[in-house]
Amino acid sequence: MCAIKKYLAEFLGTFVLVVFACGTAIVTGCEVTGGWLLTALAFGLVIVAMAYSIGNISGCHINPAVSIAMLVSKKLSVKDFIGYVVAQFAGGLAGASVLAIFFDPKGAFATNGLISGDQFANTGVGVTILAEVLLTFVFVFAILGVTSKVENSTVSGIVIGLTLTLVHIIGIGLTGTSVNPARSFGVALLKGGEALANVWIFIVAPLAGGILAAIVWKFLSCKDEK
Questions:
Q1: Helices marked H in the chain
Q2: Which residues on neighbouring strands pair with residue 115, listed in sequence order?
Q3: pLDDT-based confidence at 224, cuts 50/70/90?
Q4: Burial (CB count <10 Å: 0-12, 13-18, 19+), residue 101
Q5: Confidence at residue 128, expressed as pLDDT on a 0 to 100 scale
Q6: Mean pLDDT over residues 100-107, rounded?
Q7: Angle at the Cα of 50 from the Cα atoms of 44 and 51, rounded to 5 degrees
Q8: Residue 170: is it exposed, middle or buried by C-beta count within 10 angstroms (0-12/13-18/19+)?
């Protein structure tokens, strides 16, 4: 029963993330003059709210990239990893479905996209994957660091939320910022077309970034040394 409650918490947290953060992105249009920052803050603030709401229940991963990092770090069992990821994707899809009640998925629907435009030196799939791996690495690395000590528990939610805000500030202009496969999948599925065709990038790259963060953190950590 306890495991089911953890999965439900992950479902709820991801649902809230998509509805409120992706919803903010849709409402503001992620325009540089205000909307961009508001969207970044919305993603960060949702994490803060959920961290102090469901953190004691499931750890508040609400992101498969975080869960896979915890799996690699041996802080999550394979069984719970599968349960968490299923719940997260379900929550993301449920959140996207609620957004579709208010907003037309055929329009701007907070989906992610390939890096493109004259201002970029490189565009396309490869550089988009690189961007998402780097953004996710920074986010998950911060999570692993701040949660490594029990005494950080009172501020960990704030640190994690601010880090997510940080990666969105630069990432919105690159890919729209995924760093979370569950956040990207639901909106892409409902929008369809190019967004759905490219969604594999925003599943694979964040997972790779999460794994890389776990490996680097484990290498740098000295807590096991005598």
A1: 2-16, 23-28, 35-58, 64-72, 78-102, 125-146, 156-171, 181-191, 193-197, 201-220
A2: 124
A3: low
A4: exposed
A5: 98
A6: 95
A7: 85
A8: middle
Cβ atoms of residues 114 and 175 within 8 Å: yes
Mind spelling out the 3-state secondary structure of 146-183?
HCCCHHHCCCHHHHHHHHHHHHHHHHCCCCCCCCCHHH
- Mean pLDDT over 167-173 rounds to 96
Do 85 and 206 touch, CB atoms closer than 8 A? no
Alpha carbon distances (Å) from 192 to 185, 189, 204: 10, 5, 18
Residue 84, amino acid: Y
Buried b (16+ CB within 10 A) or exposed e, 111-143: bbbbbeeeeeeeeeeebbbebbbbbbbbbbbbb
pLDDT of residue 226: 42
How remote is the C-alpha of 121 from its chain's centroid? Answer: 26
Among 88, 91, 90, 136, which Cα is nearest to 112's? 136
Report pLDDT for 225.
Answer: 46
Q: Of 52, 56, 70, which Cα lies nearest the Cα of 213?
A: 70
Residue reference for tokens 């690189």: 130
Question: In angstroms, rounded to a whole number, what is the distance separating the alpha carbons of residues 206 and 195?
Answer: 16
- Going by pLDDT thresholds of 50, 70 and 90, the confidence category of residue 223 is low
pLDDT band at 12 (very low <50, low <70, confident <90, very high): very high
